[in-house]
Each structure stands twice: as structure tokens, then as C-alpha cells.
Amino acid sequence: xxxxxxxxxxxxxxxxxxxxxxxxxxxxxxxxxxxxxxxxxxxxxxxxxxxxxxxxxxxxxxxxxxxxxxxxxxxxxxxxxxxxxxxxxxxxxxxxxxxxxxxxxxxxxxxxxxxxxxxxxxxxxxxxxxxxxxxxxxxxxxxxxxxxxxxxxxxxxxxxxxxxxxxxxxxxxxxxxxxxxxxxxxxxxxxxxxxxxxxxxxxxxxxxxxxxxxxxxxxxxxxxxxxxxxxxxxxxxxxxxxxxxxxxxxxxxxxxxxxxxxxxxxxxxxxxxxxxxxxxxxxxxxxxxxxxxxxxxxxxxxxxxxxxxxxxxxxxxxxxxxxxxxxxxxxxxxxxxxxxxxxxxxxxxxxxxxxxxxxxxxxxxxxxxxxxxxxxxxxxxxxxxxxxxxxxxxxxxxxxxxxxxxxxxxxxxxxxxxxxxxxxxxxxxxxxxxxxxxxxxxxxxxxxxxxxxxxxxxxxxxxxxxxxxxxxxxxxxxxxxxxxxxxxxxxxxxxxxxxxxxxxxxxxxxxxxxxxxxxxxxxxxxxxxxxxxxxxxxxxxxxxxxxxxxxxxxxxxxxxxxxxxxxxxxxxxxxxxxxxxxxxxxxxxxxxxxxxxxxxxxxxxxxxxxxxxxxxxxxxxxxxxxxxxxxxxxxxxxxxxxxxxxxxxxxxxxxxxxxxxxxxxxxxxxxxxxxxxxxxxxxxx
Length: 685
Known about the structure:
By secondary structure, the chain is α+β, with helices and mostly antiparallel strands. Helix content is 31%, strand content 13%.
């Protein structure tokens, strides 16, 4: 047998291919260091993606937190606006000068002080003194009361009183002559505008105040905001007010912050609204910002809550003393207590006018003075900042100076002597009888809008006819004495109008109830008519029972005869703060709020304002709560924060918080929901 496997010859012939696919041979690189097609980044898709990234515009920088949020604080005299990321806002005068078709009305200043011989008759012809709303006004008596209060405080602190100070000051001021200051030596020289190009139809802010003579140049100067509402006294229509506010805000954003109108769609807005506001005011502002100007979204915040944010407090009684009004409200745990809101219809402008009145009585050396001119008003504002105080030890026969800068004339420096005028002018905040409140409300009519419905009701509205949106419990407490007098007067009037007494019982039989045809009823209630009636005829409809009408009782007569918000707006500042804290009628909360009274606003910077209010509150509360008088503390604004901008800075803090995302109202929501959407985003609506 053969050993092993026999040798088999290998088949060297080429067989059929299993596929027609030709496998290419590997490329022969030119050198071993080449990386051609060795990574995914060398593919065409990777190269196209890289080119797109290089050619794409650079992404926008997010910037600091709050850089896309604009905070707006509209005031009567100043508009404070800026990004939430800014340290301080831009403050401009909230006024505008528009070119007007001739004849151009002259500039006017609406006086707000009661002059000697003023009557107590209201603007609508009501004699307020006869109705018991206020005593008969006597200018000399009011001035004597203010002098007596000042003299008493100075004697308490053992300060020297100069008996003939007014005569000495008047003699010096009568002989004072101005000193001419050349323009090159005046560091604060004002370049007045004497000509305006034909194409420019408006001037905003300080430019509007630098007009040499607005009437001759064909311009009308207006201020769109007055207190907590629109200035309807100087404007014919609310559309004109909205147009002026649009122009002021847009011009300020463009010139001061570099934000053009085309970029408004990328910015959000936080609007600071008054504590005591009208819904139509908020509706018009929201429509202006969201529709007219085209901002991305908005949020509304009350000024008292914003002030606590800026001061770092969670609970406080905030008194915002502005130029034309004082707003007071209590904040507790980050919420404004609505029943504690108060509104006073006077402010820093009343101090300016009263200071001018007092200086005129001591021969003010600048004779050609007119408060309707912007540069003269600036002079008195500077004097108010330099002279006014509430510290009794500063009352002395001191020498002051001021500079008058008028258009077309060199600056003039005057010398001035004053005594108690520096403190009496500020005391008008605590003696508001000197202010003509009736004249201040002339022309201030509410703005109505069909989309705004005051649909909030409570027991007070059903019982006494008051709208809780306009009347708070603090206002009711402040005017309780007036309501009692009105009740007594109405009761006396009803008693005099009652018919003569009915005759004695038994002299005249009581009237029997009858049918409409005069047929009396029987005792069982059936008719006593003739029963012999043909029943075959169609029976007429049954007669109805009628009874004599019951005359209304005296209790059903409405007792609300006075304007509660208007009467409450005439309270002294210290009494208003006390009644504001009493709005909830809780002693514990009253003591807590009185221990942290926060003063904000420009007028709160008057020296001695905090101590003056604190001492007056102690004397008021001593009668009712003796234990709480020792815990009263009036807090000024933090030292590193200007009281003018404290409210704005608090709102800017809110604009940088993450929680504000739940409060934004977008333009689409406003278009669909309107005020309903804003009500759902705000805690105070």
C-alpha cells in the first residue's frame, strides 16, 4: 500500500471572478509624513462646515445681567431712565417744548398758595367753611401759628431769638446791588438757545429749558406728568400726552444711552408706577410702551416696593416726597399693603413758591422775578437747596448769595439776608392750610378708557358707596371727623324737611288697603263688590293689590357728600404717616412700621427732615400708644445712595433677579389680553 497522501498537482489556472467590483490599489503617497485623507477633518463636509463657521457673523455678547432691561421712573419734574445694569440712571427734566402754530400762549405758572384775603369757597362754588369742611381761612392767623410753633421749639432747645430780625434783613436786602460776573469767569455759564433750526420741531429736557424766550420763538413748554397722574390741566387730549412721553423717552434713550428706536424690540421695560394710581394711567403707559414704542415686554412695579428693594428692607413705611405730591404706603414682607396708601397733594414745588413769597416780604433783591420763566425758577430752586433747613439751630440772621443767569445778560451775583424764612418755607409740609388745594385740582380730570373696568368690590363699596380702588382705610380714618360732621348736618337737614306730625291715634281711622279700582277688601281678604254679576261674560283679569308707598327713612339717605381722597390729601405730613400706619388697625403692625419709616425723594434731603418727622410722630403717638413712642425711627436713604434715585435703583435690582421672569407681560399677551394680562402679572392690580 502506498504510504501517505499522494501528491496532487496544484491548479495554476485563473478561475472566474466572484465579483465585477475592482478593488483599487492603495495610493502611493509622495512621502511618509503626509496626512492626506487620513482624518475626517479632511473630507469635503468638514471643510464646508469650517468655512460656514468662519464666514458667520460673530455672536452678540450677552453683556452684564440686566443690560437688556430698561428701568423707567417718570416723575413730575425729572425722568430717570437707564439700564438695570447701570450704577446710576440718566436724569433729565421731564418736559418738552414743541413748535406751535401762532398765536403761541405765554408760559404760565399755576400758583398754589393762599394769599391774604383768600376765601374758603371751593372751585365749584361750595362754601367749605359753612359746611364744616375747614375753618375760615385767615392768612395772618396761619402765619402766627407757624411762628409760634417755631418759637416754641427754639425756646425748648434754648436757642436765641432775634426779635427784629425781619426788619434788619429787609433793610439789608433793599440796599443790595448785584455784582456783574463776566461769562469767562462764570464756571456754570448757561448757553441759552436763541434760534432753533426750521426742521427741528421739538426740544426735550434741558434743551427745552434753555430756550431764551419760548413764546417769541414759537414754542410751548409742557410737563406731561403731574403727581400720580397725567397733566390734563395743560394738555387738551390724552393722545397729545402720550405723544410727548413717547418723544421724551425715545430721545433720551437715543441721545443718552445710544439705544435707537429700531432696537426697542430687543429690550424689556420695568415701569415704576405710583402707589395710589389710576388704572387708566397704567393702561395708557402700557399701550405706549408695548404698542407705540414696540418694546419686547414690560413689568410694572409700585414705587414703595422699589424703595424697599433699594434700601435693603423687607418691612417699612415709605414716604416718597416728590416735587408735586407725597406718596405714603406701608410695605410688609415684600408687598404693599393697599389699605395703608395715602396721597398728599403738595410737595417740593410748594416749598419753592412759599420760599419766594417769604423772601418777597423781606425785600428780595432780585426784583424782576417771575416763576413762570424757567431760569428764574432755577434760581429759586438753587436757593431752596442752599437755604432751606428744618434744624432750629440754623435759624439766624445769616448772609447768603445767589447768581441770576438770564439770556442776553451777564450773570449777576446778589447778596441776601434771611432769618426764619429758611425754616418756615419747609414747614408748609406740616401746615398745609397755607396751600390752596382747590386751585391745584383745577383742570385735573380723570382719564377714562373703555378697556379699563374697576371691577373690584368689597363691603365698603356696597355699604357706603366708596370705590376701594380710590379710597383706602387710611383715608377713611383721616376723614372720619368730616364724615361725622356731614352725618350731623344731613340729619339736621332731614329733620327740618320732615312733614308735620300725624294726628293722635284714634282721631283718624287708619287707611284700608284697597284694590286699584278703589274697592275695599273684606276681613278675609276678598272683595266686597256686588256678587250679582253675570258670570257668562268673560271675566276681566283679577285686580292687583296696591298699598300706599312707604316714605324713605332717614337712614336710607346717602351720607357720602365729600371727596374722601381729596380731603385726605390735605393732611400734614406727620399726621398722614401716622394714619398710614393705622390703616390696618393693628397695634403690633403699627409699632413695626413706625420703627422703620423710610424717607425718599428729593425733598427728603432737606437738613433736619428725619428728626423733625420723628419728633412730631412721637408727640402724636404719645397720646394713644405711649410705649410705641420710644421705638419710632425715621430712616434716611442709605449714605451711598442718592434719595433721588433710590426708587430707580430698587427697580433695577428687581430687573436683575431671576424671579422677574414670572412678571413679564409680552407684547403678544398685551394684544390679546390687555389689562387682564397685566392684572395677572402684577400683585397690586
